[in-house]
Amino acid sequence: MKFTNYMLSFLILISFSAGQDSRKEIPQKLYGGLKYSITDRMNRLIFATSALAAIGSYQYDQKVKKYALREGLLSDDLSRAGDLYGGELGHWILWTTILAHSKLTDEPKNEFWEKIEFSSLALTANALVTYLLKFGIGRERPNGGDNFSFPSGHTSHSFTIAAVTNELYGRRIGTLAYCMATLSAISRVHDNMHYLSDIIIGAGIGTIIGRGFSIQYKKRTKKHVYLLPSKKGVTLAVIF
Questions:
Q1: Percent helix, strand, coil in the chain (nearest 5)?
Q2: Contact between 74 and 82 (Cβ < 8 Å)
Q3: 153 near 193, Cβ under 8 Å?
Q4: pLDDT band at 10 (very low <50, low <70, confident <90, very high)
Q5: Are 215 and 35 in contact (CB under 8 A)?
């Protein structure tokens, strides 16, 4: 099952990236990231907007489905690329980018593993939330394949990747990641795997979870510079 593959990948990387003491903090970090996902003011606005948009688009789900089946929304190649990116390819691209950037900039190993842990925790939390909603709501897919249509897992997954990428590498690379996430979302409607409302709420969930864990990552890795008195006068101290 795809959910099991996701969880194994994420948890293996978390276990590698976390030291013995840090492993004990994993539940706390998961809770903290989810807390920021819910309590951050901008995240609340993003989720409220996506929820209202999903409710509003619900009445157009069947019309969009019929149009996508009749006319198509993407070329077959673009649809395949979006589907692959929203599956396992997306997070492997993210982790490869983190590794390549670390090597090119001669980044300290602890900073590299912090980024791996941060991204893996965000993706794990998104997978848990998305699949809990899928099992709990049980909406049938437009193609009748199963009852895991709402929300779109490919969409929430790729938008989590986009939010994490935006935090790590800034707006330019983040914008590219959000474009890829949008392509992944559209491909799911094109392939008749999801309704319009499924991908809208999936985008909202992925974005707020990625942003929530980004807030936690920023707080944990932020450097504080202090001038402290010493025997020789004043000492510059950097505290993480």
A1: 80, 5, 15
A2: yes
A3: no
A4: low
A5: no
